[in-house]
């Protein structure tokens, strides 16, 4: 369904070339303290930046060879990746590494110059708690449904999902479901949009969307849109551009994306741009960063903003990448709503 | 990489401000490094525990630090034999009968309690290539730890520590409530020097989620057979009442309350009449709150929870499973009346119409299931109102309308 953007004010345009330049400039800011304060997110940041560039239609804007070099320099002998060279291996950076290599079609380099896919798969699979089905982030054992999604995401891209107990993991997600249709970080925890996206995406990868109370969840998610048109992450919280992804991606996957006002959300995201220097922030007038740039653009892509590459809501990568790696990508399918709820 | 709520500005800091920022950054990173490197070395002791207090004071969202705090509790502050305290306050049991890896938390029911790292991913020192298959605990300080049920003195001490942690979470959730000057005084009396950081100003506007998660972890510890050995559902239920009393609009508190209720009722052990009375009371609590704050989402979500407890039956695990269909229908009709009353005072608040719709549809489903006819409600009018009051969600109201028509 193509959305018309006739209602948008003329001055709200996507500042594509400014955003490309912004992302290209990120690695040149080594004289800024914030650069060093965020070293523990470097590989993740590279994924966010690269995804943004792909969606903007400028995949070549970051040098491919250097990107591969950097990614592989973060890898440990056990297959896991840290956020930067020398940083401990962690699920989140490992998933980012796999996604980056998928986007630039460099899995072969992982075989020839890295530890190879199998070891990466083993690193991820070893993080599953085989009693509860959930996943830890690293050897320190912190468990979070985000890590479960990360594992499903990366393993499916690597063709290694069979290494883990999918059914047990699915059971764990179900245990994290709340009466409002949403999902929390662990059983008993309250619903949160970030966790909802990860749980819904993981269930989608596992082919178990039947377990989702789509009406209740759709209702909860649709209520994230506030008067400004932006989306928040939980009731009573402020709207934030990144929820254009977490909330909208979830709505898309359960077939209820039409339950929010798309024009208003587009306008909110565009107002949160810095059209001169590039980048998108959490809300209009705030400082931009690569996280919000990535998820703001992903949101706009889901909203079918003209000129953007289509994004796959399950993987948060271009559909073309997912199509190439898996042979298929997300298709909107009408889901029958569950009985018993409004 | 990720900034929230920081106003965009052309970098116009004065040199003095810039230097001040650099000092702040340096101090923050030093503290962080101290904590992370001590944690990496496996030395969980009271000194590290205190460092986490300091960092959580600055950043209660940093969930890894809450995790480190948990590990300090598990490996050092709890289950100590007081006579074996070393002068620095670090605890190392060195019983010759030490068993190395009896799972400390195997008996604990809490699903949110992470299994301690050394029982799942034994540390083999910083040189390890990540996870290690062997079960040997290479850290010499760890190898002699004996995990045994504490004696009564140990139980009392641990109880104090954990209850002071509950107070810590309270102050983390609402700086206005907590009394940091008294929080932790019991445990610092046992353990030597402990300063009481002021947490009042630090937590304004921050997320409470890690604090709630930590609280659930502490509660699970207190409930464990080694300590109180009984459920804290009553206390925690009372805690939610307290928090809600300070601020009705607290989604986390209402959510936690909804989680506690079934356990609470099982413990109270009363029969069907008691359960029905409890349901009545909860409904009036939330209705009283709605009378004051009819546009408060958190309240409506809790109301939705209670309605679903009435309308969804069959699996037995609800507040009042023995209610008959007629009784359930009566409850729902009563709710519809009450919500209609709200309309008189408050007019055009979309949540009210949504509440009416929800109860009505629930009632219809109930009656269909029991094959009874019901009264006619003005569903179509309410939908028209919702379209008018809440056009952002018109896609949803249209879908609903289509369903109601069928």
TrEMBL record, chain A:
Its EC number is 2.5.1.60. Residues 14-317 form the Prenyltransferase alpha-alpha toroid domain. Keywords: Metal-binding, Prenyltransferase, Repeat, Transferase, Zinc. Belongs to the protein prenyltransferase subunit beta family. It catalyses: geranylgeranyl diphosphate + L-cysteinyl-[protein] = S-geranylgeranyl-L-cysteinyl-[protein] + diphosphate. Binds 1 zinc ion per subunit. CDD domains: GGTase-II (cd02894). One of its GO terms (cellular component) is Rab-protein geranylgeranyltransferase complex. Catalyzes the transfer of a geranylgeranyl moiety from geranylgeranyl diphosphate to both cysteines of proteins with the C-terminal sequence -XXCC, -XCXC and -CCXX. This is Geranylgeranyl transferase type-2 subunit beta. Pfam families: Prenyltrans (PF00432). GO terms for molecular function: metal ion binding; Rab geranylgeranyltransferase activity. Its cofactor is Zn(2+).
TrEMBL record, chain B:
Residues 86-111 are annotated as: Disordered. SUPFAM superfamilies: Protein prenylyltransferase. Pfam families: PPTA. One of its GO terms (cellular component) is Rab-protein geranylgeranyltransferase complex. One of its GO terms (molecular function) is Rab geranylgeranyltransferase activity. Its EC number is 2.5.1.60. The keyword tRNA-binding does not apply. PANTHER family: GERANYLGERANYL TRANSFERASE TYPE-2 SUBUNIT ALPHA, PROTEIN FARNESYLTRANSFERASE ALPHA SUBUNIT/RAB GERANYLGERANYL TRANSFERASE ALPHA SUBUNIT. This is Geranylgeranyl transferase type-2 subunit alpha. The lineage of its organism: Eukaryota, Fungi, Dikarya, Ascomycota, Pezizomycotina.
């Amino acid at each position: 369904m193509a959305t018309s953007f006739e209602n948008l004010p003329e001055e709200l345009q996507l500042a594509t070339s400014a955003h490309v330049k912004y992302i290209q400039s990120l690695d040149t800011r080594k004289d800024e303290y914030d650069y060093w304060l965020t070293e523990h997110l470097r590989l993740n940041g590279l994924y966010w930046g690269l995804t943004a560039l792909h969606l903007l239609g400028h995949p070549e804007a970051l040098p491919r060879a250097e990107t591969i070099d950097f990614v592989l320099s973060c890898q440990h002998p056990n297959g896991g990746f840290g956020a930067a060279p020398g940083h401990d291996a962690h699920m989140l950076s490992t998933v980012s590494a796999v996604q980056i290599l998928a986007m630039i079609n460099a899995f072969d380099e992982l075989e020839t110059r890295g530890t190879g896919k199998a070891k990466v798969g083993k690193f991820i699979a070893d993080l599953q708690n085989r009693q509860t089905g959930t996943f830890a982030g690293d050897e320190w054992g912190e468990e979070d449904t985000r890590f479960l999604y990360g594992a499903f995401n990366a393993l499916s891209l690597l063709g290694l999902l069979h290494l883990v107990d999918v059914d047990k993991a699915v059971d764990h997600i179900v245990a994290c479901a709340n009466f409002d249709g949403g999902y929390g970080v662990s059983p008993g925890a309250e619903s949160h949009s970030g966790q909802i996206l990860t749980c819904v995406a993981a269930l989608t990868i596992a082919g178990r969307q039947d377990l989702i109370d789509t009406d209740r969840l759709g209702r909860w998610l649709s209520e994230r849109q506030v008067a400004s048109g932006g989306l928040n992450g939980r009731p009573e919280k402020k709207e934030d551009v990144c929820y254009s992804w977490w909330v909208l991606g979830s709505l898309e996957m359960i077939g209820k994306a039409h339950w929010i006002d798309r024009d208003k959300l587009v306008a909110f995201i565009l107002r949160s741009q810095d059209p001169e220097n590039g980048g998108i922030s959490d809300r209009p007038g705030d400082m931009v960063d690569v996280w919000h740039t990535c998820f703001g653009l992903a949101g706009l892509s889901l909203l079918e903003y003209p000129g953007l590459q289509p994004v796959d809501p399950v993987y948060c990568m271009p559909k073309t990448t997912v199509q190439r790696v898996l042979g298929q990508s997300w298709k909107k399918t009408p889901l029958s709503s569950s009985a018993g709820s409004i | 990489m990720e900034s929230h709520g920081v106003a965009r500005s052309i970098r116009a800091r004065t040199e003095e401000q810039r230097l001040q920022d650099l000092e702040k950054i340096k101090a923050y990173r030093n503290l962080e490094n101290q904590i992370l490197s001590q944690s990496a070395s496996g030395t969980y002791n009271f000194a590290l525990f205190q460092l986490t207090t300091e960092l959580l004071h600055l950043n209660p969202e940093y969930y890894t630090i809450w995790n480190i705090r948990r590990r300090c509790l598990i490996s050092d502050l709890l289950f100590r034999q007081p006579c074996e305290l070393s002068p620095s306050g670090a605890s190392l049991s060195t019983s010759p009968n030490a068993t190395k890896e009896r799972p400390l938390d195997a008996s604990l029911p809490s699903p949110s309690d992470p299994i301690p790292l050394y029982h799942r991913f034994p540390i083999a020192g910083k040189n390890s290539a990540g996870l290690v298959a062997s079960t040997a605990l290479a850290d010499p300080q760890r190898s002699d730890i004996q995990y045994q049920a504490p004696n009564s003195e140990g139980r009392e001490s641990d109880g104090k520590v954990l209850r002071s942690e509950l107070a810590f979470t309270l102050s983390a959730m609402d700086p206005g409530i907590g009394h940091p000057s008294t929080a932790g005084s019991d445990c610092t009396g046992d353990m030597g020097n402990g300063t009481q950081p002021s947490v009042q100003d630090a937590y304004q506007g921050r997320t409470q989620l890690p604090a709630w998660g930590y609280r659930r972890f502490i509660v699970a510890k207190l409930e464990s057979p080694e300590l109180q050995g009984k459920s804290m559902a009553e206390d925690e239920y009372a805690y939610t009442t307290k928090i809600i009393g300070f601020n009705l609009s607290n989604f986390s508190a209402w959510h936690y309350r909804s989680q506690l209720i079934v356990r609470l009722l099982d413990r109270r052990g009363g029969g069907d009449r008691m359960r029905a009375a409890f349901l009545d009371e909860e409904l009036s609590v939330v209705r009283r709150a709605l009378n004051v704050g009819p546009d408060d989402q958190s309240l409506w979500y809790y109301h939705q929870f209670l309605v679903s407890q009435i309308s969804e039956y069959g699996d037995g695990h609800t507040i009042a499973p023995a209610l008959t269909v007629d009784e359930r229908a009566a409850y729902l009709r009563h709710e519809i009346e009450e919500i209609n009353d709200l309309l008189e005072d408050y007019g055009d608040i979309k949540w009210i119409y949504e509440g009416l719709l929800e109860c009505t549809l629930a009632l219809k489903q109930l009656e269909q299931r029991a094959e009874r006819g019901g009264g006619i409600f003005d569903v179509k009018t309410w939908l028209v109102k919702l379209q008018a009051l809440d056009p952002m969600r018109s896609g949803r109201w249209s879908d609903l309308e289509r369903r109601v028509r069928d």
